Structures are given as C-alpha cells and as structure tokens.
From TrEMBL:
Pfam families: Cupin_8, F-box-like. Residues 12-27 have a biased composition (Basic residues). GO terms for cellular component: nucleus. Belongs to the JARID1 histone demethylase family. It comes from the Eukaryota. Its main location: nucleus. GO terms for molecular function: cis-regulatory region sequence-specific DNA binding; metal ion binding; oxidoreductase activity; transferase activity. It is found in: Nucleus. This is Jumonji transcription factor.
Length: 509
C-alpha cells in the first residue's frame, strides 16, 4: 500500500527524544540452548503457542526460522540473511538491531526495501515499539503490532484500515529473531508452574509473623489477610475506568489513561508487554487511595517519618498475561508485600547470597544484566536450578493472597493472566539497620531510588528516626552485636561432637 509506506517518510507531530532508551538485559547470539529450544518448539508437544496467536503472514516471526532448521533444509548453506545484508552481514543479529535502533523511521522504512533480508530485520517489532514510545509517548492507539501502530499514526489512522500487502519471504534463519517471536507467543510450560514450595500461612498473629517470618527474613504466602479489603471486592475494569476517567498512569516509560492501556493490553502479544506500575495512584485517583489498606503485619512503616520526602513506596500494578518484572532486589534494602486483587502471578525467589542463573549484577550493585525477557529466562535458565543445592522459592499467587518478599531477596514475577495488584515497600525495626547501612554506601547516589535527593537521604532518615524514636537505632545496634557474639560463641558441629581436651580429635580447615 503506497500510502502507508510513504507515510513512514513523514515525521510524526511529537518530536523524538534526543537519547534513545537503551535495551535492558541481553540475549546471547550463540547460546547452545536456543537452537534446541527452537527445534523443540516446532516438534515437541510440551511447547505450545498461545491459543490466541495470529497466524497472519504479516507477522515477522513467521518469516524467520531457527538456525538449526538451516541444517535440515535442502540447501543448508542458503541463508537469505547472508545474501541480503551486504556489508552488514558480519554483525551478529543483536548488534545489527542495536545499529538499526539508531535510525529514524524514514531511514528504517527505506532500508527495508533494499533487500528481502533487510525487510525482515527492519520489520523487527521492538524497533518500532521504541519509535512509537519515543515519538508519541502514551498517545497511541495500538494496532496489533508496533509497526502497524506507527504506520497508522503517520497516516492519520488510515493505514490500519487497509493493511499493507504481505511479503512472503522464505529462507531467513536467525536464532535471535526467532526467539524474540517465540518468547512473545509461547505459553508457560507445565513444569515451570508445577513447583510450589513457599510456606503458606493463614491466621498468623502479628507476633508470630515477626518471630517466624520477618525475623528469619524468609518468604511466605499469606492467605485470608485481605478478605475484607474494599479493593478486593470492587476493583474491576469497569470500576477503575469510572473513577480514573481523564487521569493518566505511569506505563513503562510513558503515561496514558487507563482505557487506552486496556485497549493495548487486550491486543498485544509481545515479548515484554508494557506494564502499568504507578506510584502516585492514590494522589491521581483519591477513590483508590481510600480503598487502599495495609495488612496488619506491615503497619510498622518507619520511612513514614520522612513525610512527603519519603521515597516512592506503594504502587498499583496492572498488566496482561506475560507482563511482569524480571529479576531484581527491591530498592533501598526494603522488604515488601504484594497483594493480588485480580488475576494470578508466578513468583520465583532466590535468597540474597544466591544470584539467579543468567543474572549478572555489577560489583557495586548499581546495574544488573539479565535476559531480555522473563520468558527467555524460563526457556534458557530455569532448568539449571534443578541441580542447585539452594533451589528457588516458588509459588503461584492468586486473588486475595499476599506474598511477603524479605529484604535482599532476588525475585521474578510474571502474570499468568490479566492481573491487578498492590505492592508496598516498607521499613520495620527488623530491617532498619540494613536500610541505614544501604543508604550510607559510598555509591548511594547510584543505588538509592524513588527520591530526588539521593545524596542526603541517609542523614535525613537517620535524623528523623532519632527524633521520632529516640534511642531506637542504638538499641537495635546493641541487639545486633549481642546476636553476632552469641553466634560466634556457639559451638560448631565438630566441637560439640568431639571434645579435643579428652583425647578426641578435631578437624581444622
């Protein structure tokens, strides 16, 4: 359709940001698991594509085959990629896409007509997602793909009514491009959901929670503690749309009204769906603030001494199936709770001393490199945990249930269906010293989040605690010293089993 194509050569009304958002995470081009998994997706019944997957030939994922299939073809050396990329051929696909990500839409569109191979690469939908978000922000109407969304916006909405004619291209092989499509379209496998080893508790007293859960710093799933929440009873789409009309929420790097986000969520099928994660929901929509309650176990909230200067601490979270949060440790050494209003979430958690497979934090903790998407982590790294001595804590959390995430624990969350949840990070006296130590680290300005004043947060918080709770910090420090001394004096197994003074023996390492 000439009109749609030529519309790409015209700039959109909103100017693009000068700095393109960098891609998070990594995907190894030569990961040995990729070809095996891709071949399995084609022939192994344990890999299922989502039932709503479109088989439209316009889907660029259907134009690409996994590299392993090249060796089974009649002409194993005839990869369209090699013949059609010209001087760009030596670049691995991930680097090639990074280079194309520097181009404006008109250059990307022009490049796509240079060869069949460049058409495949330049049509990679995440490239167009970045263009849409940079140029339109949240003011877009999702048209089934990001490329179609850009074309529709550039042509005044007419291009979406008459889709451009599909090109039938065969013989392009790429693990990197195929896996991106596969991660967007594959269902969660049964074995990824079957393991549920979190401790589930109901009817705990606050004292029991502190002694049995918070003090030992271990995850737990709490049942029944939000049964009477107003939000649990009425927070559905219709209610939220009614009370939030005209208000915008934070969705990834942009803001948009809830009705537009729901239209996007209903039609999207991509590797990393945009996630509504808003810290100001109570200020934007006072009715949501009035419905918000804190479960009885988490009401000691020491960051509240900072008043309006406290870091961001509570969020409403809404997302479609497949959306979620990749592995991270919660900010500022806080603990957290996450309550599901509607939907279901799969959780995977590792203790602070165990870095999840495929995740690579920097030495100072300021940056974390991880797989591009959550589904990619499950495909390529989840199986590695089966042989680990310290296996992850896992569960599926459903409507009306609350997960407690101890401070320092790595965790990943993926929505198994459209979900609405509330989460809050908090400081109690059980983790107060950890938070204070975290805030005074030499690189705190890089590590602290949720506040504009990262440099002075330690001094402000410590001073406010001393004013509101005189002597608390010193008492906690003394208790910590006593516990450390007691642990040091405690006899080891060999010391208690063998008395060296009475002719026994003792190993020394």
């Amino acid at each position: 359709m000439p009109g749609a194509f030529h519309s790409l050569l015209l700039p959109l009304k909103r100017k693009r940001k000068s700095k393109r958002r960098s891609r998070r995470g990594h995907r190894k081009e030569n990961n040995p698991n990729i070809s095996k998994n891709h071949l399995a997706a084609a022939g192994d019944p344990s890999f299922h594509l989502k039932s709503c997957t479109s088989v439209s030939p316009r889907d660029i994922g259907l134009l690409v085959q996994p590299l392993g299939n090249l060796f089974l073809s009649a002409t194993p050396r005839a990869n369209l990629r090699d013949a059609g990329l010209g001087a760009l051929r030596p670049l691995p696909d991930d680097l090639l896409l990074d280079v194309l990500g520097l181009l404006p839409a008109r250059d990307l569109a022009a490049l796509s007509v240079a060869s069949k191979a460049l058409y495949v690469v330049a049509s990679h939908d995440p490239l167009w997602r970045t263009l849409v978000l940079d140029e339109l922000g949240g003011a877009f109407d999702f048209a089934g793909s990001w490329r179609a969304t850009y074309i529709a916006a550039a042509s005044g909405g007419q291009a979406y009514l008459i889709p451009p004619r599909a090109l039938r291209i065969k013989g392009f092989y790429s693990d990197y491009l195929f896996q991106s499509w596969l991660c967007a379209n594959m269902e969660m496998r049964h074995e990824w959901l079957a393991r549920d080893n979190i401790e589930r508790r109901r009817g705990l007293s606050v004292e029991q929670f502190i002694a049995e859960v918070e003090e030992p710093n271990r995850p737990v799933l709490l049942e029944g503690c939000i049964d009477m929440w107003p939000a649990l009873q009425k927070w559905n789409r219709d209610y939220l749309l009614e009370i939030s009309a005209g208000k915008e929420f934070a969705v990834g790097p942009v803001s948009m009204p809830l009705d537009r986000y729901f239209r996007y969520a209903d039609n999207v099928q991509e590797e990393r769906p945009l996630y509504l994660f808003d810290a100001k929901f109570a200020e934007r929509v006072p009715e949501m603030g009035r419905d918000y309650e804190v479960p009885v176990y988490f009401r000691e909230d020491l960051f509240s001494v900072l008043g309006k200067e406290r870091p961001d601490y509570r969020w409403v979270i809404i997302g479609p199936a497949g959306s979620g949060s990749s592995f991270h440790v919660d900010p500022n050494s806080t603990s957290a709770w996450n309550a599901i209003i509607k939907g279901a979430k799969k959780w995977v958690m590792f203790p602070p001393e165990v870095v999840p497979p495929g995740v690579h934090p920097s030495a100072d903790g300021a940056e974390v490199t991880s797989p591009v998407s959550i589904m990619e982590w499950f495909m390529n790294f989840y199986g590695a945990c089966e042989t680990w001595e310290k296996r992850p804590i896992e569960c599926v959390c459903r409507s009306g249930e609350v997960v407690f995430v101890p401070n320092g624990w790595w965790h990943l969350v993926i929505n198994l269906e459209e979900s609405i949840a509330i989460t809050q990070n908090y400081v109690s006296r059980r983790n107060l010293l950890n938070v204070i130590d975290f805030l005074k680290k030499p690189n705190a300005s890089e590590l602290v989040s949720g506040t504009e004043d990262r440099v002075n947060l330690h001094n402000k918080f410590r001073g406010a605690i001393e004013a509101a709770h005189p002597g608390m910090i010193k008492r906690l420090e003394l208790e910590a010293q006593q516990k450390a001394a007691a642990r040091k004096k405690k006899a080891s197994f060999w010391d208690s089993a063998v008395d060296a003074k009475n002719g026994g023996f003792k190993f020394s390492f």
